[in-house]
């Protein structure tokens, strides 16, 4: 067995035998499922409807306000405004809607007041304004002796039919589905890089602090040690992710089937029901299976390897350059920023223009391509762009590994001094 294989085996066994690794491997899915179940339980709990008192001196609007699960409307038009305001101050009711008695609808529209001790929900206020506006509009039409029924019937309801040039029917919101599918894969890569890249860095710092590295480095080359740590940690991370997926899936099934806990967010459930209740469900399914799923899965694996190895080499170099995790913080920001930038570029640029200059450029930059390119692939990426992106990614990886090995070779044997960016540059020339 080669030296590199021995180092990989050592790092893998050291990680999987660690008590904290074992505990978190099996505890994390339990915590995540428990949290999802708790959120699902909270979503089923309905709070009491907020009581809105209405003082409608005009008598025009009181019948237009309908009770809902969130709001209940009480007609107190015959009571004095002073006593009603005192009730609001005493917090007996949520709010007071005051509609004065005015003969002029235009003046009335500007004198309606909503009195509350708390700032109201903007959507609720918008619904109030819409309800009042509809009634006033109808009143204005009647004053002008216009047939309101004829006007209502004359209002056109337009529904644009979406189709492709081939004649196939298209569906709304497909771009959002494509982006979120790619974003899911990109998010997994980002989380893996952050979690296990930091694990590589901490492992290097620990061995350096304990002076174990002085013994190890006498038998192996620094480059072999660095690559062994990266690969061994990545294998342990993959194993942990697989266990999380299996255990989490089992727990989710048990929670939903046997415990009767709904783990689906309310909004997601409503959206699913809306789709299932329409004929477009089959269209969404057809469009989903038309996506380049095989290309997406293969690209995920390739970009996963390239992206993780690229960032882990940087993490290993940082671990070799510093003596403790506190000193490493000054070097971590340049690593995190490209990942954050990739997420924002992916959601805003790819969604608006997946083949535009911005999205294409960031899908070629090696520090952002593992996330941005995966978001672009569902929209159809030319093979030549994919190959160029991968070539740049792995070319940069080998270049970064070469530089990181130089820093690693010198940094792992240096203690007691926090290096500056200038000193790191000097190490590269040794």
Keywords:
2 domains, 4 strands, mainly alpha, 430 residues, D-Maltodextrin-Binding Protein, domain 2, four-stranded mixed beta sheet
In brief:
This protein is 67% helix and 5% strand. The protein is mainly alpha-helical and 430 residues long. Helix 2 (19-44) packs parallel to helix 9 (222-257) and helix 7 (174-209) runs parallel beside helix 12 (293-321).
Largest sheet: 4 strands, mixed
Strand order of the largest sheet: 2-1-3-4
- How much helix is in the residues? 55-70%
**Overall spatial form:** elongated
Counted beta strands: 4
Order of helices and strands: HHEEHEHEHHHHHHHHHHHHH
**SS strand fraction:** under 5%
Mean pLDDT: 78
Task: Note the quaternary state here.
Answer: single chain
Radius of gyration: 31 Å
SS element count, helices: 17
Structural classification: mainly alpha
List the uncertain runs: 265-278
**Number of domain modules:** 2
Distance between the ends = 31 Å
Architecture blueprint of SSEs:
Blueprint: H1 3-16, H2 19-44, E1 50-56, E2 71-75, H3 81-89, E3 95-99, H4 105-108, E4 113-115, H5 122-143, H6 148-154, H7 174-209, H8 212-216, H9 222-257, H10 266-276, H11 280-290, H12 293-321, H13 325-352, H14 357-362, H15 369-376, H16 383-411, H17 421-428
Parallel strand pairs: 1-2, 1-3
Antiparallel strand pairs: 3-4
